[in-house]
Amino acid sequence: MGHPDSADQRRKVLLCLLVLSAVAAFALYHFTGRDYPFYGDELELFDAAKSLAKDGLFSKFTFSDRRPYLFPLILSLVPNKRDLVFAVQLLAFECAAAALFLFLSARTQGRQLWLGGTVIFLNVFALLYLGYALTETFSIVFIFAFAMALIRACEPGHSKSLSAFLAGVAFGCAVMVRPSNLFLVAPLPILLLSDWIASGARLGQRLTASLERLLGFAAGFCLLALPQFHNNLRYYQSPTPVVTSYEKQAKFDRDLVEKSIKYATAISAKSNKAVPAIYQDPFRSARASEQRLTRVSARAAKRVTTLFALIDQDRPIPYNREMTPWYRLPASLLSLAMFFVGLVGVLGEWGGALLIPGTPLQRLRQLFTRERLPALVLGSTGLACLVAFSEFHTEARYGLPGLVLLSCFIPQARALWQSSGTRRRVLLASAFGAWMALGIFLSYWIERDIVIPR
Question: What pTM, to 2 d.p., does this model score?
Fold first, then answer.
């Protein structure tokens, strides 16, 4: 659909997508994890939730040194049953997806409603986690909220300070669910630049506006971090707004990054417990070479391969029981295609602004228009997540937020394809084919050295 659609049509499409998403989520849940007992991190999170429910929020609850309070607080309200975890997370995801769908469709004049909604509601990699008591779902929910609030804070015509405060609240929620979401601070400069690039106000007014936005964002984050800060200071004598073991965990993750490309969680056939399925680093010996050029090249290749490995969701189902599951190839193909097409959509929006005639400032201002701000904020947030997580975390599921955000721009890639001439279409098709071929080769090449403890 290439014409503006009415609000009534958006509501009808939204209702259909809510139903389709619920059906798809239940089907995936029924066939992939409904009969599983709780494993690994799930057991630890429920222990933290039970302790928090008993001792209170401002207490030294179990695992409070490495589990921030918000997700255990949410789990404390949910009985220890997988079906109820699925229902609560499905409700949260659908609410967040509906908000993002309405938010984005209003800024694109309702173009391509069905495709735009499908890539949000029916993202199979996001739906797979709804039945697991892991932090993925609520992390995505709060990242959606953070991105929407940040976009609103950059737009004229309403209270930017309030939107910046809400962005800080959503950021705080994301961090209090998963501490590594601190990397979401990467797109924050967009908020400050909006007063300098998109505004024609005087210097003093711009400085004041930027300071108000920054203070509003900080106030929102501090509000959510207050319980964590209180518990850390009182019980662990550590004045930090994140978990006290964050630095220790970050060091562990960096050590794991040094030894592997990534790891997924598997179920040991012998012990029936959750164990890491480690994709060993094929560049490790080359990175220790005495020749400087070899060392530098190997390190660069390792970083690129780790980033790729987070995009490649070859084992998307938590707690894999098989070395070579039947869905391994389709999952890789789908995740690689979603990333490439979504990235083309984002870059197309950025290029459409930066390649127009005019001064550099006029071109930058085009990025801050109502239609292109979503691509600037969501695209930069998604890329920041992937790059940051590839540096410090190698667990495969950490690539999910970036993949989900970038795939929101598949409709823009389709519009770019439709408006392109033959030469550009050939170029795009060739690039897509080369990416997919190289991606599948890399995917299976990395998998050669996978080690799953028995």
Answer: 0.91
